[in-house]
Amino acid sequence: MKYSKKIRNGFCLCLIVICIGSLFGIREYIQYINVETISMNDALADYDYMWEVLEENYPFLKMAERKYGLSMDALKTTYRRKIETLGKKRVDFCVYYEIIQECIGKFRGLAHLTIYSPFTYQDRVAQLEAQKQANTFDHSSQKLLQIYNDSIVKKRYQYLIDKYDVKTKTLSPVEKSNLEFRNINENVAYVKIRSFDTRYILNDRNTLLEWFSENSDKKYIIIDIIGNGGGSDNYWMQSIVAPNIDKELKYTFYYLTSYGKEAKEHLNLNNILPEELNPNLEDLLKLPQINQEDLSEVDSYGTLSVAVSPLYRKKICGGQFFLLVDNEVYSSADAFAMFCKATGFATIVGENTKGDGGGSEIFRMKLPKSGLIMQFRTMHGLNPDGSSNVEFGTSPDVVYSGNPDTKRISILACCLNYIKSIDE
């Protein structure tokens, strides 16, 4: 009996030692990970997982094939072979990173699909800090911060930052020139907004509120977002719309989703629950411009509402708003155009936007072995007629079809001519 007890005690002691050793080993792996290389097995596992996530959660594969002449099977096989032909037990991490970048680059950023570059990583970390300062830090931001602060992610990207000589000073600075004001005439006020970047919110909000107050008696207000690639919806909601409405404005749009494991977790994080999704995709066939090919790669559809409440009891500007857009207006800038089109907040003048403004927050994740960050839309937002907002953008109310080389001046002239026709 005493002998058996000694064996049991010895066995338990061994288990404790093994567990402690395992934990120490994991910690040591994270602490001393060789950031310069990645094993061939890890590289292939990472690559295969990336494609698994895309096939189950990214509802734009068919669109990528028809827009860019891609074959998903060929693309997947080609770049896996590129990794395999490196032929070493451990692969130079920069070579692996460049292969992954080249592969995902074939999608040309469709629906925000990208692998973070070291520049992007550094830039997005700075944006999160700006969100804290602008008081727009939410649960999605917290989740993102966890990814950015992951030990392996930080070590890998710091290595890439050093390797590619990415300097902090090369990041896009927050300049006062984000806003440009012009007094067109006694009836028309004009502001150019170059970006909705989070880092501009805090400074621009007060500047715009003051400008709206100074021009509260103007008959027409022109908001020019030509070339604006987006940033944060909070920018236009808080700084443009909310001060200039006296009742809530709201609109609803359809979206498609593949609803794989990662998409499900992401949508749940944005308070979109499974019971809110409808698997009866044939319901959407009533929409005249719906693409049935897009329906073939998703599991369900849902509706998402976007609402903005007044900042004050009385709106600052009582005049008519116009929004100038072109084919570079993207992401949250396009979301503003969608809002204006659906609610009538502003008359849109210009070209079809670049689109991709319909949906919840962009989904971001780390690839488990490499620590690289991948992002894409899990929602495929639709325009009211059923056409893809990602593919076709938002159409203007007043169409400009002139010389693209002079479009900024010409779209403004088109708007002023339209205003003149109203006054006549």
Explain this structure to me?
The protein has helices at 2-32, 40-57, 61-68, 72-84, 93-105, 118-133, 139-148, 151-163, 198-214, 233-241, 261-269, 292-295, 332-343, 389-392, 407-423, and strands at 37-39, 90-92, 114-115, 179-183, 188-193, 220-224, 249-257, 300-308, 320-325, 346-350, 363-366, 373-376, 380-381, 398-399. By secondary structure, it is an alpha/beta fold. Strand 4 (179-183) and strand 5 form a beta hairpin. It starts with a helix and ends with a helix.
Defining key terms:
424 residues, alpha/beta, three-stranded antiparallel β-sheet, 15 helices, 46% helix
Shape: globular
Helix and strand string, N-terminal first?
A: HEHHHEHEHHHEEHEHEHHEEHEEEEHEH
What is the percent of helical residues? 40-55%
- Give the number of helices: 15
Quick summary:
The chain has 424 residues and is an alpha/beta fold. Helices cover 46% and strands 15% of the residues.
Task: List strands and helices in order, with pairings.
Elements: H1 2-32, E1 37-39, H2 40-57, H3 61-68, H4 72-84, E2 90-92, H5 93-105, E3 114-115, H6 118-133, H7 139-148, H8 151-163, E4 179-183, E5 188-193, H9 198-214, E6 220-224, H10 233-241, E7 249-257, H11 261-269, H12 292-295, E8 300-308, E9 320-325, H13 332-343, E10 346-350, E11 363-366, E12 373-376, E13 380-381, H14 389-392, E14 398-399, H15 407-423
Parallel strand pairs: 5-6, 6-9, 9-10, 10-14
Antiparallel strand pairs: 1-2, 3-12, 4-5, 7-8, 7-13, 11-12
Helix pairs in contact: 2-4, 4-5, 6-7, 6-8, 6-9, 9-10
